[in-house]
Design goal:
The complex is a heterodimer. Chain A has a single domain, classed as MetI-like (MetI-like fold, Orthogonal Bundle). Chain A is about 80% helix and about 0% strand. The N and C termini of chain A lie far apart (about 50 Å). By secondary structure, chain B is α/β, with parallel strands linked by helices. In chain B, about 35% of the residues lie in helices and about 30% in strands. Chain B has a six-stranded mixed beta sheet with strand order 6-7-8-3-9-10, with helices on both faces. Chain B has a four-stranded antiparallel beta sheet with strand order 2-1-4-5, with helices on one face. Classes of the chains: A mainly alpha, B alpha/beta. At the A-B interface, helix 6 and helix 7 of A face helix 2, strand 6, helix 3 and helix 5 of B.
């Protein structure tokens, strides 16, 4: 066979670690990234909660975070990681930099999706006497949901690739396995299987996202 | 008591050297139960004006009082309440694409916090009112422009408003659909006793349903009054322009060389049905050559214009003109050939 039984066992452990890192950080990222995206939109000039100082600080924060290469970012946030996870090493600790790094990415994508909602529709809601909270929950988010699902899909895929860099802090996972065995120990077979698994995972995530988007938007295509 | 009272309204966009004054001091009052039209070319400020009524735009100066409430200074919560008493429909409908027709109509009811049990029957009633009962489950993308505007109207009426604001509501529709939407607005207006304020760049919309009209140009109202008055006697060039768009171009522009007296006659109401030209021929020694004739109906009243070139000698022509004036017709001598 391609791999020995012990190598299969190692692959299984790494896969589960990857799944754990990506799913928990994806959940946290969506939970924080979408609200941040909403905030980026509604604070814009001319929008429902126009707030230029807040808008500018958020934009700066998002851009600053996104300018740091992820491996450096992992090291940069280590004190915070230690504070939140109790340690800076291990799979659980990895979730902190993964989430922080992906949230700003997610927020930008969510912002783009939310800006697609025509402002006239928001005005129609204001005309109907809707409050800002109602506009966010009943107009902005539902109207942008196809775009938001695409944004979440892209973010999860980014998390898969970010999580592969988590080997730096002993995070484990498939990326770590590929580097340690495939690269450092010249075990090309492990490298190939790992890469194949990562490709399959990304394809599956994208396909699932596309399927969800299609399920939502088929009625709207007239 | 006027239902809507606008005084000294000014709206400026931008600041400093970039500032654009969209409305430069408008005074206007709209009576309860009337259909009030505001006509103007694009950029005249009419859209900004109607948006100041429910404070989608915050006026820079002046007052907007609707039903005794000063809209300009209302705090957020009261503003939302006041907006519910004013429905609005839009040029591009602005429906929620993620909701069905019924879902869109339900939106204002949800926003007003009406109990769920009440929403269903009210939505059915509103869809019935606009003739869309069979489209309740359709998404906006599955509806035609006219149907979308009907959903818009049903949504605007959900919370039983006193006022309906129409922001270029028919400008994205074809002429046939425009007429059916206007008929619906007229019908609903009289049935519910609504006050309607509409803005448009199409004079035909005004003649079709409006009681009174204001003509806007460059941020000001240049003329206002009953539609028939403005039509029969436009005093401002902007008004004449809109009237001509309906009754046809002036003859001079066609390069026609009159042989006698070129005269334009306006008819109103019963006068439009008199055999006027036949009388002229029979009573005077004149030969009217009809160059242009047009009869419109403005809210059920016939309104006609006739341009004719009258020959037969100066004396006969003068007598004929006097006869026409005696019929209480408005005359306009456009040209007089030198030998006439």
């Amino acid at each position: 066979m391609l791999l020995t039984p012990s190598e299969w066992a190692m692959l299984k452990t790494s896969s589960l670690e990857s799944l754990y890192m990506v799913s928990v950080s994806a959940l946290l990222t969506a939970l924080a990234g979408i609200p941040l995206g909403v905030l980026l939109v509604v604070c814009r000039q001319g929008h429902i909660l126009e707030n230029r100082p807040l808008s500018r600080s958020l934009a700066f924060l998002v851009n600053a975070t996104r300018s740091i290469p992820f491996p450096i970012f992992i090291v940069f946030v280590m004190p915070l990681t230690r504070l939140l996870a109790g340690t800076s090493i291990g799979t659980t600790a990895t979730i902190v930099p993964l989430t922080l790094g992906a949230v700003v990415f997610m927020a930008r994508l969510a912002e783009t999706a939310l800006l697609e909602v025509p402002f006239g529709v928001i005005e129609a809601a204001q005309t109907a006497g809707a409050s800002n909270r109602q506009i966010i929950w009943r107009v902005l988010l539902p109207e942008a949901r196809a775009g938001l699902i695409m944004a979440v899909t892209i973010t999860i895929i980014t998390l898969v690739s970010y999580s592969a860099m988590a080997g730096y802090i002993g995070g484990g996972g498939l990326g770590d396995l590929a580097i340690r065995y495939g690269y450092q120990r010249y075990q090309t077979r492990i490298m190939l299987v790992t890469v194949a698994l990562l490709i399959a995972a990304v394809q599956a995530i994208q396909a699932l996202g596309d399927l969800l988007v299609r399920g939502i938007s088929w009625r709207r295509q007239g | 008591m006027a239902l809507i009272e606008i005084s000294g309204l000014v709206k400026t966009f931008g600041r400093g050297s970039q500032a654009v004054e969209a409305i430069k001091g408008v005074d206007l009052s709209v009576e309860p139960g009337e259909i009030f039209g505001i006509v103007g070319a694009s950029g005249a400020g009419k859209s900004t004006l109607i948006r100041c009524l429910n404070r989608l735009e915050k006026p820079t100066a002046g007052r907007v009082v609707v039903d005794g409430r000063d809209m300009t200074n209302l705090p957020e919560k009261e503003l939302r309440q006041a907006r519910r008493e004013m429905g609005m429909i839009f040029q591009h409908f602005n429906l929620l694409s993620s909701r069905t027709a019924a879902g869109n109509v339900a939106f204002p009811l949800e926003a007003a916090g009406r109990p769920k049990g009440e929403t269903g029957p009210r939505v059915a009633e509103l869809l019935d009112l606009v003739g869309l009962t069979d489209k309740a489950g359709a998404y906006p993308a599955q509806l035609s422009g006219g149907q979308k505007q009907r959903v818009g109207i049903a949504r605007a009426l959900a919370n039983n408003p006193k006022v309906l604001l129409c922001d270029e509501a028919t400008s994205a529709l074809d002429p046939q659909t425009t007429l059916s939407i206007l008929a619906l607005i007229k019908d609903i207006q009289s049935r519910l006793g609504l006050t309607v304020v509409l803005i448009t760049h199409e004079m035909t919309v005004i003649t079709e349903i409006c009681d009174r009209v204001a003509v806007m140009e460059a941020g000001r109202i240049v003329e206002a009054g009953p539609v028939l008055d403005i039509f029969a006697n436009p005093r401002h060039p902007a008004s004449s322009g809109f009237v001509e768009a309906v009754v046809g171009r002036r003859n001079q522009e066609t390069g026609y060389q009159p042989k006698g007296v070129l005269v334009r006659v306006f008819f109103l109401g019963a006068a439009a049905r008199e055999p006027l030209v036949a009388s002229l021929v029979r009573l005077f020694a004149v030969e009217p050559n009809i160059l242009q004739a047009h009869i419109d109906h403005i809210k059920g009243t016939a309104f006609g214009t006739l341009v004719m070139d009258m020959t037969g000698g100066a004396e006969s022509c003068r007598e004929a003109l006097n006869f026409l004036r005696a019929q209480n017709l408005k005359l306009e001598v456009l040209a007089n050939a030198p030998d006439a």
